[in-house]
# Entry
Amino acid sequence: MTDINLIAAILFGLALIHTFATKTFEKLADRYPAHAGLFHFFGEVEVVFGLWALVLIVAMAMVSGGAEAIRYAETRTYTEPLFVFVIMVVAASKPVLESIRGCIAMLARVIPGRTALVRVWLCLALVPLIGSFITEPAAMTLAALMLGPQIFRQDQGMPEWLKYGALGVLFVNVSIGGTLTSFAAPPVLMVAATWNWDSAFMAANFGWKAAIAVLINATVVCAVMNRYIRNDTAGAPVTKAIPWWVSLIHMAFLASVVGFAHHPVIFMGLFMFFLGFTKAYEEYQNPLILKEGLLVGFFLAGLVVLGGMQQWWLQPIVSGLEPTALFFGATALTAITDNAALTYLGSLIAGMSDQAKYMLVAGAVAGGGLTVIANAPNPAGVALLRDGFADESIGLGGLLLGALAPTAVAMAALFFL
# Structure
């Protein structure tokens, strides 16, 4: 262990504490209006890891020299932050969102039950499972935008604890809902090629178990929320009909970005064409969520920089646990580090048994809803839904408590089935 490794671990711990203190900064902003701007800045959860990553780079420059600090920053892989930014913006575009919303509304009319309640259930159950095909960040973006007007509002009387319960279900379901394939969930993607896990393997060993947990979580939370879900919460109506070919082109952009998810040069180029298309036909668009996407990308890039220095203490823990302990240990560790980083460290360990491999990934995806950093799509959900909570911010303690029950359901399904 070197001095910079110890410094990086301390800064990582401070960043974790900061994520849990963001709501406190929002309260300080109200108490001290003269410095409200600064407190609001520190209260933005998406800023946290980027801020502490900057502190790490400065510290590295002081300890190891500026050239080494620059080399470290430039040798990190930023494909995931870039992809999440692009997929958020594309998936949240009006033609894509209205197409998915229309499908959800059509299914809600067919499925027995109160239509508004069924819509919420579909957003919490079906959309996370679709994430196995359109990627988890896209599923999180679509589900959050559709659920926001329905349940994450401050004017409908839903208790705050119940909003956190619904948020916990959404985060957990998205984390496990992407395991039907080998390319949609970041923690699975990190090991799929190394361990030769294809989509058929994932569906047979993870997917069906995850689907059961997703359905249970969505059904239980909807039953609890039933009395608070009003029949007029379908969201704002489309004010101008979107031509079918505009929607088709948007869907083609979405599919292309997903198809080239591991090639940032390609999907960033596609994104430039997408921006041009939305400008050319802006009468069929809503404002793109560029700010929210950039903040989430910044958060994930900061996590890449800070997380890259944690291997020295994380990998010995992962390699030293027997399979059952590894399952529970991975679930707990996921709460304090990105689950994709955790499984990546596991992929570097030679001679892991098949059981240990399963337990590592199962624990990592089961714990993906516990904190905002546990799974890459979570910051997107926070960015899109925080306005519906008190002080327009999401308390990380509330999220942790809200995610405990659905996490337990996910753990039981993946461990016992």
User: Anything to note?
Assistant: The CA atoms of residues 257 and 269 lie 10 Å apart. The chain has a mean pLDDT of 90. Residues 79-416 form one domain.
